[in-house]
Write a structure and sequence with these properties.
Oligomer: single chain
Largest sheet: 7 strands, parallel
Helix content: 25-40%
CATH architecture of the largest domain: 3-Layer(aba) Sandwich
Structural class: alpha/beta
CATH class of the largest domain: Alpha Beta
CATH superfamily of the largest domain: Glycogen Phosphorylase B
Length: about 400
């Protein structure tokens, strides 16, 4: 079976993480599968060696922006599918080929376009040009959903948010969670965790970690404002390490950067926060070995890779109380009002004072990651549907 994977938008963050893990769990060369993967040149060059039945097809940067990207996906790629007699197209990032000549799976992975909270808090503050582009992209995603034979989302919440804008019958919908790479630590929470640092005689330190790429909806400011509330009494020290850096040049255009930087530089915040990264994949993994608590204040997500990764390492989680976070973390986290720095500080403080609860959350999280978030199962569900779709070749393709 010949499958094309369109990962043309996999440049940063979760999109690259997804492609790396997807390719690492595809069937081996001795299987009946052949894969052709279109992706940005920079991403292709950074990938480890792939199996012999996987052909990487790097795209020039000029074909990966704006109308050139649309032309490539709708015209050039269509010719390739027909010329190479491809059996299935897997479009991995929100946009599908319209009237695709072969069966098509579409992964919808961007929750912003269907988040009322994001639109209310951030989109209304952007200029007219960006608001128009936002609505155009959402229209294209909805049009893509109607064109796909199967629509896949990583969470049930993401699917229901999408359904508020476009009809998706159960027969064409699949909730397929992402996976995580489990560390071999014998199932013990906090195995190989570095000891807490001592900021003064008789004062212990609680290490907090927040991993993600900076964005408006990542809610960094609420976490930063919680630090002086935690550190005000001069006893136990609360130190945050985060890759969510508002000084990163790639995000200078975002609404929240200047305000977040101003908060980060305040004298009662700056001593307790360290900005690191963004890092390549291997270096990010090592960060999970250090913290006592993982904090995830993000306001909206389609899945939230870092939460699943923290669970796989047995790190207890304090997460913003959103439907997606509850679907992903379940009983492996405690939750706080995402707009309240006071509630965040309170939940972190209560958790740190209860080592039994910390151990329980770590153990539950690791078990949850091992059973619910598996890349082999994620890929298996895709291939099972693909195999069933190929068996329907005697029937005309349904166009939506």
């Amino acid at each position: 079976m010949k499958i094309v994977i369109n990962a043309a938008s996999a440049k940063l963050g979760g999109a690259v993480n997804y492609v790396n893990n997807l390719l690492g769990h595809l069937p081996p060369p001795e299987s009946a599968y052949q894969f052709c993967v279109f992706l940005p040149g920079e991403t292709a060059r950074a990938l480890p060696a792939v199996a012999g039945n996987i052909q990487l097809c790097p795209l020039p940067d000029k074909n990966n922006r704006g109308w050139r990207r649309l032309w490539w996906e709708q015209v050039t790629l269509r010719r390739f599918l027909r010329g190479e007699k491809i059996d299935l197209l897997f479009s991995t990032a929100n946009f599908a080929m319209f009237r695709c000549p072969v069966k098509q799976i579409l992964l919808v992975r961007n929750a912003l376009y269907f988040s009322n909270l994001y639109q209310r808090m951030f989109l209304t503050r952007h200029g007219l040009r960006r608001r128009i582009a936002f609505r155009l992209r959402r229209w294209l995603i909805c049009r893509s959903v109607r064109s796909a034979d199967l629509v896949m989302t990583p969470t049930r919440v993401m699917l229901e948010g999408l359904r508020a804008y476009v009809d998706i019958p159960d027969s064409r919908a699949l909730v397929n969670p992402y996976g995580v790479t489990l560390e071999d630590n014998g199932g013990r929470p906090h195995a190989n965790r570095a000891p807490a640092r001592d900021f003064g005689e008789g004062a212990d330190t609680v290490r907090l970690l927040y991993i993600s790429l900076y964005n408006e909806y990542k809610n960094l400011r609420t976490l930063l404002k919680a630090l002086p509330l935690l550190n005000h009494n001069g006893g136990r020290k609360w130190v945050l390490t985060t890759t969510v850096d508002p000084a990163w040049a790639e995000v200078a255009w975002m609404l929240t950067c200047k305000d977040d930087l101003a908060v980060a530089r305040q004298p009662d915040v700056a001593p307790w926060v360290g900005f690191v990264g963004p890092f390549p994949r291997g270096q990010t993994e090592r960060l999970y070995l250090e913290p006592d608590i993982f904090v995830f204040p993000s306001l909206t997500e389609s899945f939230g890779f870092p939460m699943a990764e923290a669970m796989s390492h047995g790190v207890p989680i304090v997460a913003s109380d959103t439907p997606v976070n509850r679907e992903v973390c379940g009983d492996a986290a405690v939750y706080f009002n995402p707009l309240s720095a006071e509630d965040l500080a309170q939940q972190v403080r209560v958790l740190a004072q209860d080592p039994v609860l910390m151990g329980k959350l770590g153990a539950v999280g690791r078990e949850r990651a091992a059973t619910l978030f598996r890349w082999d199962r994620h890929v298996q569900q895709i291939l099972e549907w693909a195999g069933g779709a190929k068996e329907e070749t005697s029937q005309p393709l349904a166009r939506h």
